[in-house]
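Predict the 3D structure for this chain.
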Amino acid sequence: MAEYEKRWLKAWNERHLFESDPLKGKKKVFVTFPYPYMNGPVHIGHCFSATRVDVYARFKRMQGYNVLFPWSWHWTGETIAGMSYRLEQGDSQVRRAFIEIDGVPAEEVKKFTNPEYLASYYTKVSRRVVQATGFSIDWRREFTTVDPAYKRFIEWQYLRLRELGYVVQGTHPVVWCSLDQSPTGDHDRLEGEGVSPEEFNLLKFKLGDFALVAGTLRPETIFGATNLWVDPDAEYSEARVDEELWIVSSSALRRLAEQKHEVTPTRSFPGADLVGRYATAPLTGASLPILPSGFVDAALATGVVYSVPAHAPYDYTGLRDIQSGRAAVSRRVKEIADRIELISMIEVPGHSQYPAEDAVKKFGIKDSTDARLADATAEVYKEEFHRGVMKANTGFAGLKVSEAKERVSEALAKEGLLTKMHELPQRVVCRCGTRCYVKILENQWFLNYSNEEWKAKTKELLRRASVFPPESREWYNVTIDWLRDWPCARRSGMGTKLPWDKEWIVETLSDSTIYMAFYTINKFVNAERAKPEHLSPEVLDFVLLGRGAAANLAKAAKMSETLLREMRAEFLYWYPVDLRNSGKELIPNHLTFFAFHHEAMFGEKLWPRGFSVNGMIQIEGQRMSKSHGVFVTWKDALEKFGADAVRATVVLAGDGMEDTDWRAKNAEDTKAKVDSLISFVEKNLNGAVRRAPDHLDRWLTSTMNRRIAMVTTSMEEMRTRRAISAALLDVWNDLRWYLHRTEKPRRQTLTEVFSAWVRMLSPFVPFVSEELNRALGGKGLVCTADWPSPKDFPRDDAAELSELVLRKVMDDARNLLKIVKQPRQKLNVYVASDDARSYFVEVAKARARKESLGVVVKRFASLGITPERVVKLQYEAGEELVSMFVSQPDFDEYGLLSEASDFLARELGVRVEVTKAGPQGIHDPGKRAKDALPLKPAFYLE
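Done. Predicted structure below.
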C-alpha cells in the first residue's frame, strides 16, 4: 500500500467518516452489496460489483445525503463445510487451490478441516482487502451469517413467512446430493449453478420382451429417428419398472426409484451387449439399430438416446464419426451405420433440409468431441422450436414444432409408449464433490414462489422500483414467471435451523433475502447494547414491523424500553434499501428472492427502491474459473496496482449487463494515468499566469459544465463506466486541448477547473483525489466536499462551437495532407460565403421542421451547391453540432480560423492562409472556394 493511501485511510478512520447514524431532517441513502461467500478470498469479480456500490455511495455522500454502506460475510450453506470435508478426505485438488491459487500458508490449510476456521480465515483476509480499497463502509454493523444474533433474525423471518403461508411442506423434485442427504442449492454447487430439474419424456422402443427406454426433451423428433445410442462401456440393466420390463442404464434405476417409481432390477450387463441389435420405434414402427457412442452420458436420464442426425448436431457428428472411420467400431457396426440415411422431418426457414449439418459446417465442427457442439445444438433447437414446421412424413404436417411437441406426447402416452421423469439437463456437482441428481422429496420445506398472488405483488414491487440498466427489468419479470416452489432447507452445512423443525437448516440463498434490515439494528448488538437473547420474535416484530407495545416487550425481554424505541427508529430511518447492486447472474435467484421476501415481510413504503446489476467479469478474455487457474484475487490486484488503479480499472471495464474483462495491461495503463495526475496538476498550475479570461477559458469552463452534468446523470443511472470515462478521461483530454491551444494558461481558470475535477474524481479514485486536494490547498477532506454543480461553470456555446469547428477543420486538413505525398508550402483554407452559410442554415431549419427542401434549394440555386452535399454534411457533423451552429447567427467562422491560422500552421506543418469565399478577386488558383460550406471549408494545397 502506498504511503499516501495509508495516510488517508487513517484520516478517514480517525474521523469516523463512514459511520452513519440517523440525522433528523437529513435525507438518507442506504446502499448494499450481496455479502461475499467465505469459501475463498474475495476476487476481482467481487471487486467489480462492489466498487460500483462504493462509487455510488461516495457520490451521494458528496451530494449531501446521509449514506449508509454496510458489509457482512456469508458463511452458511454446504460449500464451506463441503470443502473442509474434501480436504479432510485428502482431496489434493482442494488443497492445491488453497495454497497455489488462494495463497494460504500450508500451516493454515491444515486447520481448514474445521469449516468455521476456514471461513474466519478468509473473512479476516478479505476484510483487510476491502478496507485497503478505501470502501466507505460502516464497519460497526458487520456480521457473519452464523452469528447468534443473525440466527435469531432468520428464525423470526421464517416464523413469519410460515404464518403468511409462504413456507409450505410438500412433495417436489429437488436437486439432491446423496452424500449430504440434502437438496443442493445454486451456491452449494461446484458445477451447474442455475440448473433446475426439467421433465424428460421417456419413449419406449420394443426390444424383445423389454422396452428399451430413451430419454428426450423433444418427443416430436421421433419421426426423424434413424438409430439409438448407448455407451458401450457403461453398465445397463434389465428391470421391472412400474410393472413393465425395461432396459436402462443401471444408474437410471436408482434415480427412477428416487422419483417414486417402483423398481426391481433383474440383470446387469455392459452396454456393448446392446450394440448391433434392433429395436422398434414408437409411433413409426421403424426398426432402428443400436450403435455405440462416446457422447452418451449413462448418468443422464436413462442412458439411452435415440438419434435424429438430420436435426441434432451431436447425432449427426456421431454418425459421421462411424461412417468416416473416425470412430473405432467393428466392421458390422460400420456396415450398419453406412446404410443409415438422414430423415428430414422439420422445415426451418433459412436452412437446408438438414439443419444439423448446416450448424456443424457453420461452427467448423470436426467430430463428436468438439465442445462447440453444445452451441450448435442450442442454435438448431432454438430455431426449430420457434420457427420450425412439421413436414408431411410426421403425420402432423404444417404444425409448429412448439405445438407438435405436446401433440406427439399425447399420442405416445395414449398408446402407453411414454412416461416421464425429472432430470438435470446439465451436470450438477455438489461442493462436496458428489454428482447430484433429481429426487422427489416428501415432507420438504419450500418457499411457495409458485403462489400467483405473491408473484403479482412482487412484480408490482419491481414496477415501482428503479431498475438499472432498464433492459434487466424483463429478466426479473421472466424469473418471477418461471419460479416454482424452492426448497428452502437442507439437512447439512452451516446455518440457522428451522425453528419448528430442527432437522432442517435454512439453505444458503433462502437466508439471504432481507438481511439488509439486520444491518440497521446489528450495530446495537456489536456495541453489546442488545444481546442475541434479547432478539425474540416479539421484539423483532416491534423493531421491524411496528407490532406490540414497547413497554410490555421491554419488560418481557429484560431490556431497555429506550433501546427498543431507538432500534425501531434506526430501522425506520434507513429503510427502505435505496440501491442493491450485484452481478446479473443473481437475477434468477438472489435478487428476485430479495424482491419476493421484501414484498412479503414489509409494507409498500419499505419496498426496495433500486435494483442494479452489472455483467460478469472475465480474466484476459477467459471465463473466470478457479479450478482452471483463470482467477485473480482482489488482494493480488491491489498489491500489484494499488487501490485507485484497481478501482478505476474495474469501473472503466463495463456498464450495463455486458460481460467485461480484467486485463493486466489495462490495469497497468490505468495505474500510469492515475499516478501521473498529481504531477500533471502541479506542473500546469505552476506554469499558469494571472490574466483576463479569453474565449479558450470560456470554452474550458463551458465544457466543464457539460462534463459535470454528464457525470452526474450517469451516476444517478448507475452508468458508472460512462461516468468515470467523462470524469477522468474526457476532462483530461479537455485540459490537454486547452493547454495545447493557449500560450499562457490562466491560473484562476485552472484552479477552478482542477478543484471541480478533483471532486468529480473522488468517488472513483479517492486516495489520489485527497492528495490532489491537498496540493491545490483545499481545506478539509475532498470526500466530504460538495459535489460540483454545472451552475458553477457558465455555458458558452459560441466558445464551444469555435473549438469544435477548429478541431474538425484541423482533422479534415490532416486527412488531406496524408493523401498528398509530395511536399507542399501552403494550405489555402476557403471559408463558406455568407450566402452558403444562409443556405446551410435554411436547409437545417427545414429538415428540423420536416419540411420540403424545394423552396430553399430554388432560392440558392445560383450557388451551384447540391442539396445532397449539404444534407450529407449535416448528417456527418451530427445533430448537436449543426443545432449549435444554427443557434449562433453571429458565429464568425472566418474570424476564428484567421485568428488560429498560426496554430493550424504549427499543427499541420505547412503555412496556412484563410480566405472567405464570395468576394471577387480572391486568390483561388484551384477554383475551390465555390465548394466551401459551413463547418467544411474548401482546401487547396500549393
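The two ends are 59 Å apart (CA to CA).
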